[in-house]
Amino acid sequence: MKIKISLKDPKKFNIREKVTGAINEVRDDVDAILARDPAAKSRLEVLTLYSGLHALLMYRAAHKLNCDGHEYVARMISQSAKLLTGIEIHPGAEIGRGLFIDHGSGVVIGETTVIGDNCTLYQGVTLGGTGKQTGKRHPTLGNNVMVGAGAKLLGAFTVGDNSKIAAGAVVLKDVPENCTAVGIPAKIVVKEGVRVSDVDLDQVHIPDPIEDELTKLRLRIEELENKVKD
Description:
The protein is α/β, with parallel strands linked by helices. The chain is built from 5 helices and 16 strands. It has a 7-stranded mixed sheet with strand order 3-6-9-12-14-15-16. The longest helix has 27 residues, at 10-36.
């Protein structure tokens, strides 16, 4: 009796395929940082010194465990990443390829967040919910979305492909594709490259609301004093 031995073990092939996929995923994440950060000089530097990448790699391991039903271990990994990097990514979040978390400290990504490919998040960004509701309760970002430092995106809405959220903005509703949103609450000021709002994009010379109110009071007092004199 002849015994046929297959040279291709399905289990080994499956493991090899998973390893190859993981390596390609890491390569995409590293290349995204090299492409978008002029301070990055080499892959070695990115792999060893970039906390945003470290948090992302730990998230990817935790996410796979979470999908396999090992939720407690997945949360342990995500909390360890938080302690090591200052970046908290829930293992239930869905993140595409090429995410760049620049500087990273204080970034929070909630459980039902969905992030497309080649997105950029700066320090202090929160992709969070607005309460205790269940189900989908965190934002969805399309591809090539940029979220500026300190911006807060709160709720189950969508930011379309190629859109930008300005630093410090608070976004509470949908942002269409190819738009720029600024302010609290955020408003669309640029759409398809055309300015559509009179909101001032100057983030340096920002008006002081307290000073504005004091000026109004002074003017009102002067007006009343003149009436008394008359």
